[in-house]
Design a protein that fits this description.
- The chain is an alpha/beta fold.
- It has one domain.
- The chain has seven helices and six strands, in the order E-H-E-E-E-H-H-H-E-E-H-H-H.
- Strands 5-2-1-6 form a four-stranded parallel beta sheet, with no helix packed on it. Strands 3-4 form a two-stranded antiparallel ribbon.
Length: 202
């Protein structure tokens, strides 16, 4: 791999993720040959609910263990998680300045059924790039490498159990008077509260 950066695909990634995307957007690789990592942002996102931080988790089918290739991980529809997620987003952000601006484009992701998590995340990723007006092109890794000597590797450094190493500026959040400012939530939180200004924030 040439110099640049390699990223996993996440579900509604945290702000940290896109701050690095902005910096590395000219030489960007998406990891598509790794094994699925449980309890990571690959199938979860954190939003600011009326009661504080809330994790939205996409369930995957049984057998999607750590040894399963990311492209082979199937989304489970044993319960209607899509309805839970969109209702949580509506409850949390209906009163935000820009939720209605993005809502129609988001709805297909909570109505249509995707077979594979990777495909779902990639389509969502491309939609968010459009929202952010980021002109980003990327290639896929195609082969798994434990380490890269040339490229910056963000496959394990962005994780729910790890704190973000940078000081993020605050911005208005719907429930900040109740819960205080919650940093490094899903990019959805930034978009719904800041709208077109999200790009400048990043």
């Amino acid at each position: 791999m040439q110099k640049g950066a390699i990223f996993p695909l996440f579900y509604l990634p945290p702000i940290e993720y896109f701050s690095h995307i902005v910096e590395q957007k000219n030489q960007l690789y998406i990891e598509n040959a790794e094994h699925f990592q449980k309890q990571s942002y690959r199938n979860r996102a954190s939003i600011h609910s009326p009661n504080g931080k809330l994790d939205l988790i996409i369930p995957v089918t049984k057998g999607s263990k750590n040894h399963t290739m990311i492209k082979d991980v199937k989304i489970s529809y044993d319960f209607n998680w899509q309805r839970v997620h969109i209702m949580s987003l509506q409850t949390s952000y209906r009163s935000s300045a820009y939720f209605e601006y993005y809502e129609d484009d988001l709805m297909p992701f909570y109505e249509k059924k995707w077979y594979y998590l990777f495909d779902y995340n990639e389509e969502f990723f491309n939609l968010i790039l459009e929202f952010l007006k980021l002109n980003v092109s990327y290639n896929f890794s195609n082969d798994y490498h434990r380490e890269y000597s040339e490229a910056l590797d963000f496959r394990t450094s962005i994780h729910p159990k790890q704190s973000f190493g940078r000081n993020l500026k605050t911005y208005f959040q719907v429930f900040d008077e109740r819960n205080g400012f919650l940093p490094n939530l899903s990019i959805a939180d930034l978009l719904f509260n800041q709208g077109p200004q999200s790009n400048k924030y990043l």
